[in-house]
Amino acid sequence: MTERVKIFDTTLRDGEQSPGASMNTGEKLRLATQLERLGVDIIEAGFPAASEGDFEAVSKIAGKLERTEVAGLARANKSDIDKAWGAIQHAAKPRIHTFIATSDIHLEYKLRMDRDAVLRATIEAVQYARTLTDNVEFSAEDGSRSDRDYLCKVFGAAIEAGATTVNLPDTVGYAIPEEFADLVAYVMQHTPNIHQATLSVHCHNDLGLATANTIAAINAGARQAEVTINGIGERAGNTSLEEVVMALHTRPNYLPMETGILTEHIYPTSRLVSMITGIMVQPNKAIVGANAFAHEAGIHQDGMLKNPMTYEIMRPETIGLSANKLVLGKHSGRHALREHLSEMGYDLSDEELQIVFTKFKELADKKKSVVDEDLEAIVTEGILRSSEVFELEYLHVSAGTTVMPMASVQLAIHGRSQKGAGYGNGPIDAVYEAIAKMTGTDSELLRFSISALTGGTDAQGEVTVRLKENGLVALGRGSDPDIITASAKAYVNGLNRLEYLKANPVTTRQGL
Ligand code: KIV
Ligand code: ZN
Predict the structure, then answer these.
(1) What is the pTM of this model?
(2) Rounded to the nearest whole angstrom, what is the distance from the C-alpha of residue 201 to the centroid of ligand 2?
(3) Whose CA is nearest to atom 8 of ligand 1?
(4) What tens digit of pLDDT does each residue of 100-117 get?
């Protein structure tokens, strides 16, 4: 019989811990809505004790979602649990997720607690969380490097105290699939009350084994997988949702397990995460990379023409990647645009549609055909980024072989238009110099990359930047048919993200 594996998405919490991937509240709300549409069972919306911004975002998400459980992360102490509960209590389906490390190395050097003290903290935290809700998850941080019998003892005590899910993380991405499966089986056998809770796994990708470990764990009895879209997350990232879901979907004979994921929303969700965070997916990334369904070798192309199943184990349509994308042009009307955006997962208000329609017409004047990637960029830049500190209003650049590159820029700063100019050793340098002066910022440009959003010489340029200021790191993304303008938009977006980080300082670190 086919069993159900719950998908717990932590893109908004562990995913946001990717360097520079901070998202503002509007972006988080938009992503949470898309994750609900995708069909995930639980959304970990954030870590409310970490900052006021996190608390606010978790609270708004909790108020919005109807079908999906909303989890708030909390360390194993009363104050964090109260914060988490404060943020999620009005959710239709709230879940408190509390954690403490169980490995000796964490106990000795990070927590400076002994095993008995950690066991007591676990029991107290879970018991307290249970006074607030009957949906409590407990995680044993660094579980994969913990003493097995102690891990089982902690899980047993957590379940006894009322945990309904116990989560076994491979926090540092150290496990090997056979070993991790063996650990899961051991936990199943040596935790007497394990069947009163769901056993979950949460893997990091430091050795590139997160998906393999998660699948091995599911085979050994885990029934919840903690994942992120595109595998983003701390360091090398987390298990990627699309890889686990499509492995289960593609290999039902070997893995007779189902999820609630509507696979056709996988690709649009992946794109949305890239658009919002500025973290682009590598071309050879499984399932959602640009080359995942591209066949280069002649012999493969020949086979594909005869029967796609010769070289393709999944159809691109299954993940929502259609070869026949609707192409809109300058004569397309508002109605066609609304319909198409809705199919892409964007249900816009009349006011939002007006903004997107205006930008769409502007783009359609410059570019023969407007495709999904262009529309995604318009929505991300036009809707999700509204009400920001800095906004690019106007840009003029003179550059060439005989003139010193010079830029005139007009920005709205807190809604007030201001003009400025800058010189540089190239046009982008001149624009960045002008913007830095006008905004009074002093960020370091750590990385700059440029690519084309689609094929064709009239494609929009897509620029991503990584900026650092006073120890804070933010990514910025911008697109435009003009690459200088795309560069300016990316820089302004990065500066806005830095402003958000400055206004929402992380008051607490995750470790106790
Ligand atoms: O990696 C980890 O151990 C975590 C826990 C908080 C679940 O993210
Ligand atoms: Zn993690």
Answers:
(1) 0.89
(2) 10
(3) 14
(4) 999 999 999 999 999 999
**Which ligand is in closest contact with the Cα of 144?**
1
Question: Which residue from 145, 167, 202 has its CB within 8 A of the most atoms of ligand 1, so it is best to mutate?
Answer: 202
Rounded-to-integer distance, Cα 395 and Cα 393, Å:
7
Question: So what's the pLDDT on residue 512?
Answer: 42
Considering every ligand atom, which ligand is closest to the CA of 227?
Answer: 2
Task: Name which of 61, 53, 27 is nearest 272 in CA terms.
Answer: 27
**pLDDT 10s digits, 68-109:** 999 999 999 999 999 999 999 999 999 999 999 999 999 999
The count of other CB atoms within 10 Å of the CB of residue 248 is 22
* Residue 15 · residue 228 · CB < 8 Å: yes
CB 481 within 8 A of CB 454: no
Give the model confidence (pLDDT) of 45-63 as tens digits.
999 999 999 999 999 999 9
Integer Cα distance of 170 and 214 in angstroms: 10
Calculate how far, in angstroms, residue 84's C-alpha sits from the geometric centre of ligand 2.
Answer: 17
Residues 6+ apart with CB under 8 A from 101: 107, 110, 111, 118, 140, 141, 142, 171, 511, 512
What separation in Å is there between the alpha carbon of 156 and the centre of ligand 2? Answer: 22
Rg (the chain; Cα; Å): 24
pLDDT tens for each residue of 160-200: 999 999 999 999 999 999 999 999 999 999 999 999 999 99
Mapped onto helix, strand or coil, the DSSP state of residue 410 is strand
Count CA within 13 A, CB hemisphere, residue 422.
Answer: 20
Q: Summarize the confidence of residues 412-419 as an average pLDDT.
A: 96
Q: Which residues line ligand 1 (CB under 6 A)?
A: 14, 99, 139, 141, 167, 169, 171, 202, 204
Distance 318 CA to ligand 2 centre (A): 28
Coil, strand or helix at 496? helix
Please name each of the domains of the chain with its CATH number: 3-277 (3.20.20.70), 334-384 (no CATH), 390-503 (3.30.160.270)
